[in-house]
Amino acid sequence: MGEIRNDAAVMAALGRQMTRAVQRQAVAAGNLANLDTPGYQTKEVRFTDALDDHLQGGVTVAVTNKAHLGGPAGSASGPESGNAAGLQSRRDGNNVQLDRELLAMGKAASDFSAAQTILAAKFRLVRYAINEGR
Amino acid sequence: MSSTLGSAIDASASALDAQRVRMEVAVSNLANAESTRSADGQPYRRRDVVLESNSFGAALGDPVQATGVRVAGVLEDQSEFQRRYEPTHPDADKDGFVAVPNVNVPEEMVDMLGAARAYQANLNAISLIRDTIQRALELAK
């Protein structure tokens, strides 16, 4: 717990987790929309690239969980989306898999939900402190 | 963030639109499976929907945007008409054959099923995104 210095860092990390979840959800929604578009290739958000960008920025990483990304809240480098590898294409050149995308959407939704719950609890604590425990 | 979610809803909505068109075309193909006359005097030609992906956010410079879909066109299937021997039919030629539309009923049924499933999946996606927006709004309470 030594790396977590203040509430602001935790909140920023939670905020980033929510942003990432939303991006994953948006990309999965786009893939679902193109379920029957000939030649369409499944897109995905590249997290390792985003993580590398953050780490190479020389910032101290405050993480509450190994899966969280560290770095300052307003980091300039954003994640990229690219074509997903290792998926079998159908005959029309489309490689969107319905179950994979629905799963990704559901997972992103629950990630978002988890971060939102913790963030709401954090906000409650801060409000409690502001009101001097009343 | 909201623009990302907005683009996701736009993409899903565009897919609902496209799948509805696909369904309508499949229905009109089925309805006209036996139409031996159309506006040009020929039997009805089977129609096919061409889908094309359509990026909403690319112009805005956001790399993580949902890709929508749109109907690029509805094309007529130029394959041969089927010929059926039916001498009593008013549109029969002098040998007794009638040219009937190049519609394959099972194929249309499968296409309709696919469109219905895709429609459902996208509707599901919209409700998931709405849940996410709702959760985000709860933070302000």
Overview of this protein structure:
The complex is a heterodimer of chains A (134) and B (141). Chain A is mostly helical and 134 residues long. Chain A has helices spanning 7-33, 47-56, 98-130; strands at residues 43-46, 80-83. A two-stranded antiparallel sheet of chain A has the order 1-2. In chain A, α1 (7-33) runs antiparallel to α3. The longest helix of chain A is centred in the C-terminal third of the chain and has 33 residues, at 98-130. Chain A is elongated, with a radius of gyration of 18 Å. The two termini of chain A are 28 Å apart. The relative contact order of chain A is 0.22. Chain B has helices at residues 2-31, 105-138; strands at residues 47-55, 67-76, 82-85, 97-100. In chain B, α1 packs antiparallel against α2 (105-138). In chain B, 45% of the residues lie in helices and 19% in strands. The mean pLDDT of chain B is 88. Chain B has 141 residues and is α+β, with helices and mostly antiparallel strands.
